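Morning F.,

Quick status update on the modeling queue. The single chain you submitted on Monday has been processed. Sequence for confirmation:
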Amino acid sequence: MKNKSKKKGHIIFFSVLLFLILAAFWYFIPVTETIDLDVENDGGKEVKAALITDLHSCYYGKDQKGLLKRIDKENPDIVLLGGDIFDDKLGNNNSEIVCKALASKYPCYYVTGNHEFWSERVDEIKQYLKGIGVHVLAGDTETVTIHDITLDISGVDDPTRIGKKKWKNQLDAAYQKTDPTHVKILISHRPEKVKIYEQYDYDIIVAGHAHSGQIRIPFYNHGLYAPNQGFNAKYVNGLYELSNGSKLVVSRGLARESTPAPRYFNHPELVILKIH
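Structure tokens below.
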């Protein structure tokens, strides 16, 4: 009886282990998620924005074609690069390939994440991106009209090294350059700063950083643990309506081999925003 019980225990253990391994491979596969956003505008059509966050210099096939083909298939009007596109431990090559390819086809708007600062290459990264035509935003707002919809696109650096005061100053400076008659979009790496975002009248705020808690709790849409949010993290995936009416969109990000723990219930994702 004891041997049978031990054998059964081994079977259960290895079955669970096999399931976890197979699940880790399954959740390694990226997906595309589409979010429709209705905002007041002057009767224009639709702007399609690709939101890319937390790439962390990860590999998506030769010449990054696995990711680039997925983006090109959606044919976005603009690309929003929401921080941690570059990693602090992996090299720049994979991210440079992605950014250069995207900047040659689409208007791209970028803000830093914490890992770009941790890399100690943040100035070098910004200069590279500016050199290939990416709009690098750090307390700035740029205006663009697409399909008769005028967008004010604002962006701020990640606060990890610049500090809360300078980060807030960047937010103030960027917001002062917006027009209340335009659709106002803020790109900020951090999703958890909700109380501060509610002090502004942005129509749409996009963020990443949380990696959806790495392990997303099924049917609950919270993360097991996310940086700066802790356990049972709330702002990790998809669309949230803030108290002031702003729509916060949080991407699960595209990090894969750069993270020490596998993703569960949490495919890496490309987010497509359809702004009406």
